[in-house]
UniProtKB/TrEMBL annotation:
GO terms (BP aspect): autophagy
Family: Belongs to the TECPR1 family.
Entry superkingdom: Eukaryota
Start and end residues of each PH domain: 594-704
UniProt-recorded name of the protein: Tectonin beta-propeller repeat-containing protein 1
One MF annotation (Gene Ontology) recorded for this entry: lipid binding
Species of origin: Sphaeramia orbicularis
Length: 1160
């Protein structure tokens, strides 16, 4: 689980953060002034300072925030000057945007604020639609506007070129003031809330920032997204009344509190209208006591009334944002905040401590009990000036009258949940604490008339007479007061009064506002960026954890490895010493037989194919030398005649769980059945029984082949289309020429975990990427998942989560009467279907991929579909199926749109998460087995297309230390590093790039070289070996570049596949080629996702000779880069050769490049 932060502000304006993996509050030392309120998301934190301005703190990351500015230079040809900047009066500007309507000279671009800096000067973009242009970057057309080409023609009368310049956001981990782009500044702000990132995910990925001014107006900050964290401008939102506080959730929930105590809900929020259309009024939870605070999440709403009571709103969702009713909760709070996964934090009105709501799950959103977060701050004593009496005179945070506790009817109560965790849980106070705005003059009866100040026994508040001197309250602009020293006991006149939701600030004079053993008084908390799951164990509630941590020793991975080696050697010596004393004894049992039986269903081999009940038996036996083997028996009835089917355990090549809506099935492959594409399919009665059989059969297969423990460094890794991970131990003859080991005879065993992509090398470094783009590093264990006991290691197994989307399609056909409707022709596909249209998939009958997956979101329209969509998510075409596009034309008679729903899987495996940047591709340098390289180059691409280089990756620390960003002019989608640190990459527009000057001293290289792609081909994936580079285009055809690494010249284009459709390709260190094919010659649909091995690949014949079709289908990715063994060359025997020569393979010496062994 990634580390995230909980943010809080104390009553003295100091900002603290608490990590989910930490055990103390860390003070934000950078704040130049005191902060009143904060609102946080995962990538940044917003705050309101005492000058009522908004400040932004962007968390530092290895991935910089870069914004691309662009402008176009336009020229027209004339017979005298040729191409020049003399344009016609009707032409566009000489310097303009892409449309030509806006004048944009180079000197008109200014930095939006002091938080930005230019990366360099303007330069010409020499890439046009994935192909390199001429040196000056011009593209030509007949006239403005028209279709541009990179080639100049006889009728090219106009031309243009694009100029680029990047600016970088430099104010990382510091509070930067948000500039105002308007001449009339908005009112000073009193409340702020950030959210809305789930409204429009990629490719937009925007945030919604809502703010409340002191005059009760609501403002919306537009234009906030990853490349522009400050946003563009403020827009005022019309209101039915004056607002005092607002809350925005991750989705489309926005609630606000009116001055009168009512609540309003924003309606009409969507992807194209993030600020909504209208307000709906919701009454306060209590008819006599108005609300003072509201907090919303994905599908929850919490509220606090003036009597400090906490309320929970039931029935809230995207379709019903107003909910259905209030539930009274145990506890008295000043404020509430809802974070990720609808987890809840609050500040108690009794001791002003931060409390966490325990037991919040998707099935019980209201939780069970409040528990105090009892962790120390990062210093024993604070460093802010305050008088000693200010501690006891800590004022209240909200104004309002103290009313008698009303008897609320027609609401539910959760008092039964009050039986909590003993003293650590919050108990409801007998008398609610009053919230009043401190008057500037306590003796003024007119000021005190709105609400009286009374002492609270819980807070220990003293009146001015008790403190020994009259004390006045005021809002202090601490930024202006920084330059002057305030004497003890002095006060400052108040120029304005606090709003209903403003935080009181104290007159500060002396240091040490808190005693050494006293907890801080908190004013605000924000968990919008704090990712806490219901099963995650936090260290926030154990006061002894800090002391234990301080006493623990710092153990390095090198020390751990040395200790393990020493212990293993001692145990081996002890075992040898003890066994030697009993070698003269005769063996009591020469052979043992063990049988396990059960009942299953079998998908019979002959037609008509159907499930039949069978008896299943596994017979295992061990020989006198300890070798183990076994046989599988399937007993069935055929026309009342008992028959059986058997398979030897040592012939089983793989055991695969199979997705099935109604049965728990798995498949057993042997070499013969792999060729037939017809495995043995069995179905167990329960999922637990299926996992037990899979684990038992896997252990038996490994025993028969002598495979034990974790995978070797030379192992071949692969993933299936459902995310299962498999490894295969390569034999020395796997790449032997001319008779390599057939691919269908490779044995695969499953490893716990769930990944979409996996990459490895021969040093033992293995990385994987999940469906949610989270990166994982292999820890050296084995097993996990449903493998238990002897089938799994006891250490190096961690919890792993993954999130993926399930897609269904809504299809419609046009008719002249009603337009587009869900009534299609009889020959049409289902109106709700999968991508193929052959299977009906509706919102109600579509289930998660397997029982291990659980839904974590509702169905939403997916706009990130290839080809684009309109504003409602529709794609149009002439008929089903056809090429879809995102705009309607006169010839489009059908349309479709894709719906997505997220589901989550929690499993275990030998994988450790590598936060925080999500990745889409990763590649590791393939090293020779005898390589002495310490730091291994590893490159990756983020899910936003940024190129990254990982530093500090070694065999002892495979996760590395940090990321180094490599600048690009456009987002990338595929990357590969080959021998001699050759880095190639594919951009999202299909163009190929080579990174120059990559070395051990310069791991990130110097610059990108644009490599021309094959004619009219858009590339999708690249893989680099020792002397060859292979790519796959977007149509699934594979293109081979034969590359001379010393001169970097491309001297061969050739298409290798005629009928195969390739989804992935991988090249080893010695240029051996493996692919995942979605279509194989002469095979049926079961070949989708087949592992194929290219035979006959040699230095003089880099494109090979033929394909060896291996295990399939259902494979999604394979990596063979760990197999760094030089392919042996077997010399064919002749009649004159002596007999021993028939069995002696002759290996070829290692090839060298530039006099150095290739591989490092």
């Amino acid at each position: 689980m990634p580390v995230s932060l909980l943010w809080a502000v104390d009553v003295y304006g100091r900002v603290y953060s608490l990590s989910t993996a930490g055990q103390q509050w860390e003070q934000c030392r950078d704040a130049q002034m005191e902060i009143k309120r904060v609102t946080a998301v995962q990538q940044c934190c917003w705050g309101i300072a005492c000058d009522n301005s908004i400040y932004l703190n962007v968390h530092a990351s290895d991935l910089p925030v870069r914004y691309q500015e662009e402008t176009y230079e336009n020229q027209r040809w004339n017979p005298v000057d040729g191409f020049s900047d003399r344009l016609l009066p009707s032409d566009r500007w000489q310097w303009s945007d892409i449309t030509g309507l806006q004048h944009q000279p180079l000197d008109s671009f200014q930095l939006p604020s002091s938080s930005w800096e230019w990366e360099g000067d303007w330069y010409v973009d020499e890439n046009f639609e994935g192909e390199p242009t001429e040196k000056e970057g011009w593209t030509y057309a007949i006239d403005f506007p028209a279709n541009y080409t990179k080639d100049k023609r006889w009728n090219s009368c106009v031309r243009r070129r694009r100029w680029l310049r990047y600016r970088r956001y430099k104010a990382m981990d510091t509070w930067a003031k948000i500039p105002s782009q308007q001449t009339t500044l908005p009112d000073p702000f009193s409340d702020i809330s950030c959210g809305g990132w789930e409204i429009s995910e990629e490719p937009r990925g925007r945030l919604s920032l809502w703010a409340v001014s002191l005059q009760g107006k609501v403002w919306f900050r537009d234009g906030i997204y990853h490349h522009n964290p400050e946003g563009s401008l403020w827009e005022e939102v019309p209101l039915p009344g004056e607002v005092v506080q607002i809350s925005c959730g991750p989705g489309d929930l926005v609630w606000a509190v009116l001055w009168e105590g009512q609540l309003i809900v924003r309606e009409g929020i969507s992807r194209d209208c993030p600020k909504g259309t209208s307000w709906a009024v919701v009454e306060s939870p209590s008819p006599d006591v108005g609300a003072t605070h509201v907090a919303v999440g994905v599908s929850v709403v919490w509220a606090v009334t003036k009597d400090s009571k906490v309320w929970f709103r039931r029935g809230v969702n995207s379709h019903n944002p107003c909910g259905s009713g209030w539930i009274s909760m145990v506890g008295e709070m000043i404020m509430i905040n809802v974070g990720l996964n609808d987890q809840v934090w609050g500040i108690s009105s009794e001791d002003r401590g931060v409390y966490f709501r325990q037991g919040v799950t998707s099935s019980e959103l209201s939780g069970k009990t409040w528990k105090a977060i009892s962790v120390p701050r990062d210093g024993d004593r604070s460093h802010s000036s305050a008088s000693a009496s200010s501690l006891q005179s800590a004022g209240c945070f909200f104004c309002g009258e103290v009313r008698a506790q009303s008897v609320v009817s027609d609401v539910e109560s959760d008092t039964e949940k009050g039986s909590a965790d003993g003293a650590s849980c919050l108990v409801t106070s007998a008398s609610p604490e009053s919230f009043v705005d401190a008057p500037s003059d306590p003796s003024d009866p007119s000021t005190a008339g709105e609400g009286g100040v009374r002492s609270s026994s819980a807070g220990g508040v003293l009146s001015p007479s008790q403190s020994g001197a009259p004390l006045e309250w005021s809002n202090v602009d601490l930024e202006e007061a920084q330059g002057q020293q305030v004497p003890a006991g002095a006060v400052q006149d108040s120029t304005d009064t606090c709003s209903l939701s403003s935080v009181a600030t104290y007159t500060l004079a002396m240091e040490d506002p808190y005693g050494a053993d006293e907890h801080p008084l908190w004013a605000w908390v924000s968990g919008g960026g704090c990712n806490v799951d219901s099963h995650y164990q936090l260290n926030w509630f154990n006061s002894m954890a800090q002391s234990v941590q301080s006493m623990s020793l710092s153990v390095t991975p090198a020390q751990t490895a040395a200790w393990r080696k020493q212990i293993f050697e001692q145990l081996s010596e002890r075992t040898k010493r003890e066994m030697d004393n009993f070698r003269h004894y005769e063996q009591a049992i020469e052979q043992s037989v063990w049988v396990k039986k059960g009942t299953m269903q079998w998908w019979r081999d002959w037609k008509p194919h159907k499930w039949i009940d069978v008896h299943f038996a596994l017979e295992q036996f061990s020989g006198p030398e300890g070798n183990k083997d076994g046989i599988l028996f399937i007993y069935y009835n055929f026309y009342e005649e008992k028959k059986y089917l058997h398979a030897f355990i040592n012939e089983v090549t793989i055991l695969v769980p199979v997705l099935n809506d109604s049965k728990h099935t798995f498949a057993i492959y042997t070499p013969e059945r792999t060729k037939q594409r017809w495995p043995i399919r069995l179905a167990a009665a329960t999922e637990l029984e299926m996992h037990d059989w899979l684990a038992l059969l896997s252990v038996s297969c490994c025993d028969s082949r002598g495979i034990h423990g974790p995978p070797s460094k030379q192992a071949i890794w692969s993933t299936t289309c459902k995310g299962d991970i498999f490894v295969s131990e390569p034999s020395p003859a796997l790449e032997a020429m001319p008779y390599p080991t057939p691919s269908d005879q490779m044995f695969w065993r499953q490893v716990g975990g769930h990944l979409r992509v996996v990459e490895c090398n021969s040093v033992g470094i293995v990385w994987g990427i999940g469906y949610d783009h989270i990166a994982w590093a292999y820890t050296g264990g084995y097993g996990g998942g449903f493998f238990q006991g002897l089938a799994s290691s006891t250490d190096n197994i961690y919890t792993q989560t993954d999130v993926k989307s399930v897609y269904i399609y809504e299809n419609q056909r046009w008719n002249p009467v009603t337009g587009y409707t869900n009534r299609g022709l009889p020959t049409d596909r289902y109106m709700w279907s999968d991508a193929s249209g052959l299977h009906e998939c509706t919102k109600t009958n579509t289930k998660p991929p397997s029982p291990q997956w659980t839904w974590v979101s509702d169905w939403v329209i997916d706009y990130s579909v290839s080809g684009g969509t309109d504003r409602e998510g529709w794609q149009y075409a002439a008929d089903f199926p056809a090429s879809y596009h995102g705009h309607k034309t006169m010839k489009d008679f059908v349309r479709r749109r894709r719906w997505a729903r997220k589901c989550k899987l929690t499993t275990t495996g030998p994988w450790q998460e590598i936060p925080p940047i999500p990745l889409s591709d990763v590649t590791i340098l393939p090293c020779a087995a005898q390589s002495s390289m310490e730091v291994v180059p590893l490159w990756a691409i983020s899910n936003k297309g940024d190129v990254l280089c990982r530093l500090g990756v070694t065999a002892l620390t495979p996760a590395g230390s940090s990321w180094l960003h490599v600048g690009t002019d456009q987002p990338f989608k595929s990357i590969s590093i080959g021998a001699a640190r050759q880095v190639w990459a594919i951009a999202r527009d299909g163009s190929a790039f080579y990174r120059g000057s990559v070395s051990e001293e310069n791991p990130a290289g110097d610059c990108w070289y644009h490599i021309p792609s094959p004619s009219k081909q858009k590339l999708k994936q690249v893989s680099v070996g020792r002397t060859s580079v292979y790519t796959v285009d977007e149509n699934g055809k594979k293109t081979h570049f034969h590359m001379n690494l010393t001169q970097l010249t491309l001297d061969d284009y050739c298409s290798l596949l005629k009928e195969e459709i390739v989804t992935g390709i991988l090249i080893t260190l010695y240029d051996t080629v493996w692919i995942i094919a979605d279509k194989v010659q002469g095979s049926h649909s079961l070949s989708c996702g087949t592992v194929c091995h290219r035979l006959g690949v040699q230095p003089m014949e880099p494109k090979g000779q033929s394909w060896d079709y291996g295990i399939g289908g259902g494979w999604d990715h394979i990596t063979v880069r760990g197999n760094s063994m030089e392919p042996p060359r077997i010399r064919l025997p002749s009649l004159t050769d002596p007999l021993p020569a028939l069995q002696s393979p002759i290996s070829v010496r290692n090839t060298e490049v530039n006099g150095n062994p290739v591989g490092c």
